[in-house]
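Sat 14:20. Reprocessing the chain from the morning session after the first attempt stalled halfway. Input below, unchanged.
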Amino acid sequence: MSNSRIIATGMVPFKRRSESPVDLLAARAIRDLFDSSGIDRLLVQEAYVGTSKGGSLIGQRAMRYAGLATGMPVFNVENACASSAVAFHLANRAIEDERIDAALIVGVDRLSDLGKGALPVQETEWDGRAGVTNPVVYAMRATRYMHDTGATVEDLARVSVKSRYFADLNPYAQMSGITTVGEVLASAPVADPLTLFQCSAKSDGATAVLLVSDRLARKLGRSGPRVRASEVRSGSFSSAARDITHPDITTRAATAAYEASALAPSDLDAVELHDAFSIAELLYTEELGLVGHGGAAELLARGGTSDLSSSAGAVVNTSGGLLGRGHPIGATGLAQIIELTLQLTGRAGARQREDARAALAHVTGGGASGFDNGACAVTVLTKD
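Finished this time. Tokens:
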């Protein structure tokens, strides 16, 4: 049984463009956490800061503006989209090892600084140099998946419709206003069959979580979701052809998380998964074991991943996901964990899953030529 709990969270609304520089953006999320919880910030013994584009010493710079430049260890973590989830994993390990009792985890990025278009690639990435950017990769996955399963472009569009519906209920989400299958398909083409509404938006945003030991939680008289599993896996390199509809890294990380938590997919009430593109939700719904291969589109179409009633299976991406909430790379992993914290503490408002008791967050980190993905973090939380 894990001995770590989430007792406070902080977040700033995700936006297309923030008025704050990246270090001040992170500090705003930290201040929101302590102002809303009333917890003494000097309880923090270590800080873990996840970012992909935040620059050198982002953690120290943020702590300066948050009033936490106390000389404590600050660890800056970069693992693309999985950055803050990996930072959470490292903080949890420090508490599990009984080395510390309180860790502050922060995720932040300000992607508006990068301008329009796909994210830039490293010069050593031969796929990227050939034009195989993330939209292209996921478009190929979508085409193959539709060929293999009989899924349609309308099935892909339904993912975005669901994401926008939940995002409209989330005051921290970048996208507002619901949409329709027709509007999704009519939006600007990006990489066939994917249209603009099926691609996550670049965002500016920041998130913060306070993770403490059971011992400190009891001392403070605080409660919160328990961390039942936190697993991280890296991509495996191969020059051979891969089945791009079966992202192996997710399977490996999820299998380890289920084993560590002693829970099964059928035990989950809420899931936040990495839907950077519409096809990703279908693939990861299957890879996480919520439904068999080829069954995700039908599950979505009959409302199986949007049903908030206690008699349903796991509801997926009540935050709006990356497609609706936005995707400030370094902040995304913690945003998922914060959404599940709200679900497990009954504070998710109109998007609350009834009687939520177990939840899973899944995020993958970037891509590199020859890898299935760069990194994957899976976190399992329970109400107690």
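Residues 99 and 306 are 40 Å apart (CA to CA).
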